């Protein structure tokens, strides 16, 4: 879809400067989506090394988009020029919107929201989280601006998947929800669906029990990993079987989301099978570590 230019954008949104916290697979993808939409994007990571890794991931993805003809060489250069990188969240002072995309850990995210609350100067700036399962209200009330905190949940890979889920906390104002919707739909070109602040929202509430069932099936020896994945790819026309998809998402993220959902509902279908936890403990997190249910280069 064609995205509005800057003057058209000014008519629908007051968001020009975006901050992205975390440059893992989701943060890098979200930063790419925002920069390709013409926004000024600053990306923060914990260390210089993590930042360099994230920058390489992001620029490689942009170069691939150019190679595939999705963006021109000029657009590639202009998009790269709109991206800046830092290890200091203090540099986010002038941001209109910050999207947090760090590890799925409530304490880590809460600390980041407290820092953002201190450093972001615009009083009506939106502080958003890409969390898959952590209650938004907990992040919101850790700040002095709970009406401006919202969940904006992108899907993996963010430059490819069209959907975002918008999750207002109990404290989020209608104005913040409306601005987030305009931004994601009119500026980023995504399709937004709304969900209540319940662990898993819409998509993960349906997806995670399915992934956990596949892992339990593999663990119990009912079928091989290939047969489980082929079963869903060839039998149900899923583009990717559940074990491959778990590796893509990251087994630590699957386990963390399952844990949050189990905490919320106490239903056995959300309980992470022992094998999943052991693989996380072993550092076999899927594609991002080169090894999960499958091995990767
Ligand atoms: N993986 C998915 O498919 C997916 C899909 C949608 C949403 N999410 C959510 O997105 C978030 C990130 O997931 P991911 O898959 O990108 O994880 P990831 O492990 O690939 O990346 C997390 C990044 O956060 C960084 N980080 C940790 N603490 C930080 C801090 N204090 N400041 C700055 N950076 C910090 C890490 O260095 C790492 O690069 C999670 O909340 C996850 O639930 C993930």
Automatic annotation (TrEMBL):
Segments forming domain 3-hydroxyacyl-CoA dehydrogenase NAD binding: 18-197
UniProt similarity note: Belongs to the 3-hydroxyacyl-CoA dehydrogenase family.
Site residues, Important for catalytic activity: 153
Pathway in which the depicted protein is active: Lipid metabolism; butanoate metabolism
InterPro entries: 3-OHacyl-CoA_DH (IPR022694), 3-OHacyl-CoA_DH_NAD-bd (IPR006176), 3HC_DH_C (IPR006108), 6-PGluconate_DH-like_C_sf (IPR008927), 6PGD_dom2 (IPR013328), NAD(P)-bd_dom_sf (IPR036291)
Database matches in SUPFAM superfamilies: 6-phosphogluconate dehydrogenase C-terminal domain-like, NAD(P)-binding Rossmann-fold domains
Pfam families: 3HCDH, 3HCDH_N
Occurrences of domain 3-hydroxyacyl-CoA dehydrogenase C-terminal (ranges): 200-296
Protein's name according to its UniProt entry: 3-hydroxybutyryl-CoA dehydrogenase
Domain of life: Bacteria
GO molecular function: 3-hydroxybutyryl-CoA dehydrogenase activity; NAD+ binding
Keywords: Oxidoreductase
GO biological process assignments: fatty acid beta-oxidation
Protein species of origin: Streptomyces sp. SID14436
Keyword Calcium: no
